[in-house]
Amino acid sequence: MMHWLLFILSGIWLVFNVLWIIILFVRKKQKLNIPQEIHYHIKKTMKFNLIYVIIFSILGFLFL
How far apart are the first and last CA of the chain? Predict the structure, then answer.
């Protein structure tokens, strides 16, 4: 049961990351303006993702 929950949560995390990258890429290429609130959430999510990747990379290396 727990592994399915983790699998679903990681899938949602992956979908949001891809969505943010697509939004930022399209915004830069088309010079679109996105609302400041959405831009703030994207930046916040990207910072969280960077911290997440660093922490789990270190943990993965330690428990290899």
Answer: 25
Instruction: Look at the chain and report how many structural domains it folds into.
Output: 1
Instruction: Give the whole-angstrom CA distance, residue 28 versus residue 33.
Output: 9
Nearest 10 degrees: CA dihedral of 32, 35, 41, 42? 0
Residues 6-23 have pLDDT tens digits of 778 777 877 887 887 787
For the full predicted model, state whether its pTM sits above 0.85: no
Q: Is 45 exposed, middle or buried (0-12, 13-18, 19+ CB in 10 A)?
A: middle
